[in-house]
Amino acid sequence: MNVDGTVDEKLSNDKLGEQTEAVTALSNPVDPTLQRAYRKREYVQLGALFWCMFLAGWNDGTTGPLLPRIESVYNVNYTVVSLLFVLACVGFVSGALLNMPLTPRLGFGRMMVIGATCQVVAYTLQSPALPFPAFIIAYAINGVGMAIQDAQTNGYVVCLKESAETKMGLLHAVYGVGALCSPLVSTQFAYLPRWSFHFLVSLGVAIINLILILTVFRFKTQDECLAEIGHAAREKGTSEHSEFRKVLGRKTVHFLALFILVYVGVEVTIGGWTVTYIINERGGGKASGYISSGFFGGLTLGRVALLWVNKKVGERRVLFIYSILAIGLEIIVWRVPHLVGDAVAVSFVGFFLGPMYPIVMNHSSRILPPWILTGAIGWIAGLGQAGSALFPFITGALAQKYGIESLQPLLIAMMGFMMVLWALVPNHEIH
Predict the structure, then answer these.
(1) Mean model confidence pLDDT for the chain
(2) In terms of residue numbers, what domain contains 74?
(3) What does the DSSP assignment read for 141-199?
(4) Domain of 205: which CATH number?
(5) Which residue has the higher pLDDT, 82 or 21?
(6) CA 218-153-116 angle, 5° bins
(7) Can you give the pLDDT at residue 244?
(8) What is the rounded CA–CA span in Å between residue 99 and residue 143?
(9) pLDDT band at 17 (very low <50, low <70, confident <90, very high)
(10) Does 10 fall in a domain?
(11) pLDDT computed for residue 351 by the predictor
């Protein structure tokens, strides 16, 4: 054989040997040092994803305490101020739709950077309190960024091999921490002359998020990032190779997406409009904004404290139980005119609603085929974010016509509809 042929054969054999060694290391990492390195890298990756979800929670917890001030500053009614939720909804749906065709082309790391950059731009526009049209357009830009990051983050965590359910619960508990902290800050800014400077704080959180994503994931694909923590590449045809129609062509995906749409709508509607309800219907004062923190604090605690209940009772069955308890507590808020009692009840509503989102994500990983899983998770999570805009807008429109007291019956009806949707979701794997 000639020299060129010999060299080519040698290079081919070397490459084959490297691939075999890599596959062996990934499938059977017996070296304790290597295992520790993988675990350390996984913790770093999870830390970046946790901060991303903290920012998502921070964003969702911001609006409630600021809503009365926004109405006052821009001199708009409930319906007009709810346009910020409409623009956010447009952004969320756009981000969810863009996520599926763009992820195969750009990859996990680049998509995360795009999403994080959108949020930096949005908070930059919001912080100087621009005229109302520009102010609400920033919500659409923010919505695109949040939908993309939410889809990518959830899709990444469900691909983890060890304790994925616990990590999913912790991921969304961190979302609750962000939503708990944000009202504590925005309540203070709501009564300051420079109220919009709250968004400078949000901008700082978003810049840290962008830096972490750039540093940790470095524009890499999901498979490359998973390989860094000892996970073998997924089957061909999973998220980054799945086709748009394969995801949207499955009825089960739509049931799950509708459930999350309504669930997130309930969650953000409570966090966003309960402050206004308490001020107008229960005579609450400036401290009413902290009720939003109480709700998200309960949500955070529930996602951690009820993990063992979920496992013991079964995630499918326990979700019905949590829904019934949340409905009962919401009836108390509606029918019992007691300021402190209502605030406590709202916190417990958050406690029982909290575990639902991670339960649905975990259940999705069990009943959906692996080759569409991450794409489907992306659609479910992205469409779910649209609920955080759609239902608060509906609430605002109804409040303008019938008064803010319409909030509680609307929430109860939405929770009942959630139970119907959950009953339609199958309990076994669909091929």
Answers:
(1) 82
(2) 34-424
(3) HHHHHHHHHHHHHHHHHTT-SSSHHHHHHHHHHHHHHHHHHHHHHHHHHTTSTTGGGHH
(4) 1.20.1250.20
(5) 82
(6) 55
(7) 60
(8) 13
(9) very low
(10) no
(11) 94
Phi-psi region for residue 426, left (φ > 0), alpha (ψ -120 to 50) or beta?
Answer: beta
Angstrom distance (rounded) from CA 198 to CA 190: 8
Q: What is the mean pLDDT of residues 164-174?
A: 84
The one-letter code for the residue type at 287 is: A
Domain presence at residue 43: yes
Residues 6+ positions from 268 with CB-CB distance below 8 Å: 60, 63, 387, 388, 389, 391, 392
- Does residue 6 belong to any structural domain of this protein? no
CA 372 to mean position of chain CA atoms = 19
Distance CA 189, CA 153 (A): 30
The Cα 122–Cα 130 span in angstroms is 12
Burial 217-249 (b: 16+ CB within 10 A, else e): beebbbbebbbbbbbeebeeebbbbbeeebbbe
Question: Are the C-beta atoms of 382 and 92 separated by less than 8 Å?
Answer: yes
- The predicted-structure confidence for 235-272, as pLDDT tens digits, reads as follows 444 444 445 666 767 788 889 989 999 998 898 888 77
Q: 132: exposed, middle or buried (C-beta count within 10 Å: 0-12, 13-18, 19+)?
A: middle
- 375: which DSSP letter? H
The total of structural domains in the chain comes to 1
CA–CA dist 261, 76 (Å, integer) = 27
Which one, of 139, 253, 134, 127, lies nearest residue 201 by Cα?
Answer: 127
**Predicted confidence (pLDDT) per residue in 290-308, tens digit:** 787 788 889 889 988 888 8
Residue 280 resides in a domain? yes
How many angstroms separate the CA atoms of 198 and 126, rounded? 9
Residue 18 has pLDDT above 60, yes or no: no
Residue pLDDT, tens place only, 54-74? 999 899 888 878 888 888 889
To the question of pTM greater than 0.85 for the whole model, the response is no
